[in-house]
Amino acid sequence: MIQDKKIEKLEKSAVKLTVTVSSDGADKAYNDLLGKYGRQAQIPGFRKGKVPKDVLIRKFGEGIKQEAAADLIDEALKAALDDVDENPISQPMLDELPSIELGKPYEFTVSYDIFPEIKMGDYKGVEIEEPQVKILKKHENDELETIRERNSVVLDKEDKTVADGSVVTMDYVELGEDEAPLEETRRKGFAFTLGKEAHPYAVEDELTGMKVGESKTIEKTYPEDAASAVAGRTVKLQVAIDAVKERRLPDLDDELAQDVSEDLKTLDDLRKKVKDDLKKRAEERIRARKINALTDKLVEGADIDVPESMISLDLEHTWQDYVRQSGASEDILIKALEDAGRSKAETLNEWREDAAKSIKTRLIYGRIVEEEKIEATEEEVTEELETRAKEFKMPADELEKMFGGKQFRDYLKNELAQKKLFDFLLGAASVKKGEKIDYTDLMGA
Known about the structure:
By secondary structure, the protein is α+β, with helices and mostly antiparallel strands. It folds into three domains: about 1-115, Trigger factor ribosome-binding domain (Alpha-Beta Plaits), CATH 3.30.70; about 115-150 and about 265-300 and about 375-445, no CATH class; about 155-250, Chitinase A, domain 3 (Roll). Helices cover about 50% and strands about 20% of the residues. The chain contains 13 helices and 13 strands. The strands form four sheets. Strands 7, 8, 9, 10 and 11 form a five-stranded antiparallel sheet that branches. Strands 1-2-4-3 form a four-stranded antiparallel sheet. A hairpin with a 4-residue loop joins strand 1 (about 1-10) and strand 2 (about 15-20). Helix 3 (about 135-150) packs across helix 6, helix 5 crosses helix 6 (about 265-300) and helix 10 (about 380-390) packs across helix 12.
C-alpha cells in the first residue's frame, strides 16, 4: 500500500513524515467505503442495499472521499511508523487532509515530536567548589535557644500590655471613607508574635503599649513598595486587643534535655546532639549545593533540543501541583491570578525555562545511569527498609505495609538509585575548596 515515505527533521526534536500511498491503495479505500455506504444507505425510491453507485456519488461523493482519506491515513500511518527509527513521543498532527483523486497516488504529511538526541560532555572530572563552613559556639547556642522556644509555654501576660515578643490576639477591620467597616477586610481572633511575625497592615509600632480590651483606629499611609494590598494607600484600620500572652522558656538544664528526647539524660547529652545535628545539616546542605553546581555544569555542557510536547507536559504537571498546593479549585486559582493581573499562560511561560532545565537534567541523569549501570538491588532496599524500621521502632514488614507495600519499596529503590548516582558523580568530580561561609548563611541559602 505504501509507495514511499520521507522524513524531514525539524527544530525542537520534531520531524515531518510524508507518506505516499499507491493509487491502488487509495482507490481501494474509496471503493471499500463506497460499498459500505451502498449496503447501509437508505434513500427514498431505493431499497436498502440497492442504491446505485452513481446516485451515492452524486449525493455523498465528496463526503465519502474525505472519510475514506481519513481512514486511509490512519491505516497508512500505522504501517509507515512500524519500521522507522524516528518513533513519535507525541500525537502525530496532520498538516492538512488532502482529498482522494481516483487513479492517483495519495500523499499526506504529519508532524510529531521524537525523543531528543542527547549530546553530553564529559561527566567525569567536572570541576566544582565545596564551600567551607565552620560551626561556632554561637550556632550551637542559637540552636539551643530554638529548642527552648519549641518547648516553651504561652501564658497570659501579667501586665496585659503589648510589647516586643508578645503573642497578640486581635480583631481588625478597614474603615471606608464614610467610616463604615469594610466587611471583606474584617479579621477576628488574628494571632501573631510581635517582632517575629509581620502583621498584614504593618501596624506593630501602633499596637505597642495597647492593653487587653483596648481598641483604637489607626490611620497610616503606605509607600508604593509596601505589600500589594496596601501599597500607595492611606488606610484607616480599627483594631481591638483580645489577648496578650508571652512565651515562658524552660531552663537550659537536664530536664529540658529529657523533654527533647528520652535518649538524652543530661544537658551535655543535648549539647552533643545539637553539635552533631548541626554538622549533619551542614554536610547535607553542602552536598546539595555541590550536586546543584555539578548538575548546572552538566546541563550547560549538553546539547539537547527538548521537544515542545515534553515541555508542555512538564508544565501541566507543575501547574496541577500548584493547584493542589493552593487548596483552591483551578477556576478559583485562575480567577485569583487574573485579579492580580496575570494569566495561566503567563504563569506557565515564566516556568518554561525551569521546565526545560528539569527535563534536560532528567535526560542526562538517565543517560549516565544507563551508561554506568547504576541501580539499587532488592537486598539494598531491604536493608534500607530495616534501617528506617529501627528509627520508627517497629518491624520492617509493618513499616512497609503502612507506607504502601510494593509502592513504598519502589520508592526506596528509586531513592537509593538516585543516591548512588549522586555518589558516583561527586566521586568522579574534581572538587576544590570554595569560599568560607557562615553556617547561618549556608542554611539560609
